[in-house]
Automatic annotation (TrEMBL):
Residues 10-126, 140-251 form the VOC domain. Coiled coil: none annotated. This is VOC family protein. InterPro entries: Anthracycline_SecMetBiosynth (IPR052164), Glyas_Bleomycin-R_OHBP_Dase (IPR029068), Glyas_Fos-R_dOase_dom (IPR004360), VOC_core (IPR037523). It holds the Pfam family Glyoxalase.
Amino acid sequence: MSEKRFTPGRVTWRELMTLDSQRAKAFYGELFGWTFVPFDLGPDGGNYEGIKLGEKLIGGIWEIRKGESPTSIFMSYVSVKDVDAAAKRAQENGGQVAHGPKDIPNMGRFAVLMDSDNAVIIAYQDLNGDPEPAMPKAGEFCWETLSTNDVERAKAFYSKVFGWQARSFQGGMSVFGVDDTPEGAVADIEKAQNMPPQWFTYVVVDRIETARDKAAKLGAQVLVPLVEVPNIGRIAMIVDPTGAPLGLFDHGGKA
């Protein structure tokens, strides 16, 4: 048996909490070629399924029960050494624990955290260890971005909770990461957008225009048609037919 490997501070799992799992599965199956497999998370697990790309398990999808959430949303899981300690650090540094800490039978332990501005992220320890880091391929999750009204406060919070260091990046953004491995970015919200602070996750696509237009034909709303990030790639933002925001990323428009 291989030794379990843990990578504290890395984003290791993404989960779609959706108001309509059947509609979401039809949309993402067509857009990215995702398939879905049942997960048994015990009596409290609800209607949970794993997301697969080919034979690779890349995330989960959970149909929200009535009253649990007003909207569909992607959630990002960050690996931690001790979930309870991370939850305590969040509370000590101006955040809240929205749910947990709690065990997932035969899988791990998690806590849903809210940062100083109520953006939601999950602290997680997997009983089976973390997946081996690899360059994401088309159809796989690749990146997170935090939109916030207070960048400096966000930097301080996530430094304390996850041990992330922040460094300056182009365009007025900062990049979060552990050592030299970036895990996400943080950027100011323009108050005119009337957007609450929140985390966004991104999926790699072969070409932004093709994926964006296909998403629109399948019922998505296009929030941001195209943004060029010099020397990095290109992004677009959509909202899926169930209301969940998602970013698309390509490496510069090459097919």
